[in-house]
Amino acid sequence: MQPKSTRAILHVMPRAIRYRQLPTEQSHPQSVSLDRLSTLQLLQLMHREDQQAVRAVGRQLAQVAKAIALIEASLRHRGRLIFVGAGTSGRLGVIEAAECPPTFRTTPSQVQAIMAGGPRAVLRSREGAEDARASTQAMARRRIRAGDAVVGITASGVTPFVDAALRAATRRGAATILVTCHARAPIPADVRIAVVVGPELLAGSTRLKAGTATKLILNMLTLGAMARLGKTYGSLMVDVRPTSRKLTARAIAIIQLVTHVSPRVAAARLRAARGNVKAAIVMASHHVSLVAARRRLSHAHGSLRKALSSQPLNHSITQSLNH
Question: Given 72, 99, 127, 200, which residue is catalytic?
Answer without folding.
Answer: 99
